[in-house]
Automatic annotation (TrEMBL):
Record-level Gene Ontology MF annotations: tRNA 2-(methylsulfanyl)-N(6)-isopentenyladenosine(37) hydroxylase activity
InterPro entries cross-referenced by the UniProt entry: Ferritin-like (IPR012347), Ferritin-like_SF (IPR009078), tRNA-Hydrxlase_MiaE (IPR010386)
Transmembrane spans: none
Taxonomic lineage from the root: Bacteria, Pseudomonadati, Pseudomonadota, Gammaproteobacteria, Oceanospirillales
Pfam families: MiaE (PF06175)
Protein name: tRNA-(Ms[2]io[6]A)-hydroxylase
GO biological process, one term: tRNA modification
Length: 203
């Protein structure tokens, strides 16, 4: 399913653990709830970047489009939730995003570059997880997740292109740094299931 996006597959350090896939299938109500939160947060992040970097023309263009698409995805998830009588509840954030973002450098343009690289990993991982789940879900959810692959892959590309554009030096070392972090966050056990959590803890 991800064969159409070889650069995305190569970018990620690993596949989602099978134990996480099984955990997701056992917690589909929570999956939908956290998915909705993820889409809303993605739109919010894009808008925040537009406010912070008003002089970055290409960023404004790409983030504006991304924010609209993420809000549309939120609406689509929320519609499915309402149809299934799934309440949209507050959820604690997973350790995934914070585990990446706490390593963002504080000076510019390094701060922007790191933020873009993290955005690329978040979008790429979301795409990979939708693809991993789709074959195991009911027809409605499967079709929905498959329909998200193209836009999530494009968001990954947009973030990575912006990181390269606004960096004063090659970004390979920073990508490798966050790649190692991302692998640990995806493969190390978690106590709570989330869209971007690791596999379940045995405790």
């Amino acid at each position: 399913m991800l064969s159409a996006y070889p650069e995305l597959v190569e970018f990620l350090p690993c596949k989602s653990p099978e134990a996480w896939v099984n955990w997701a299938l056992e917690n589909q109500t929570l999956l939908l709830n956290d998915h909705a939160h993820c889409e809303k947060k993605a739109a919010s992040t894009a808008m925040s970047l537009m406010y912070r970097y008003v002089d970055r023309d290409n960023l404004l263009h790409k983030m504006s489009r991304l924010a609209r698409e993420e809000l549309l995805h939120f609406e689509q998830v929320h519609k499915i939730m309402r149809k299934r009588d799934v309440a949209y509840d507050h959820l604690s954030a997973s350790r995934y995003a914070d585990g990446l973002r706490k390593h963002i450098r504080t000076h510019e343009p390094a701060r922007l570059v790191d933020t873009m690289i993290i955005g690329a990993f978040v979008e790429a991982r979301s795409c990979e997880r939708f693809a991993a789940l789709a074959p195991h879900l009911d027809d409605e959810l499967s079709k929905f997740y498959i329909s998200l692959l193209k836009s999530e892959a494009r968001h990954f590309e947009d973030y990575l292109e912006l990181a390269k554009e606004y960096s004063n030096e090659p970004i390979d070392d920073r990508v490798a740094f966050f790649r190692d972090l991302e692998e640990k966050l995806i493969t190390e056990p978690d106590e709570e299931f989330r869209m971007h959590s690791g596999p379940p803890s045995l405790m």
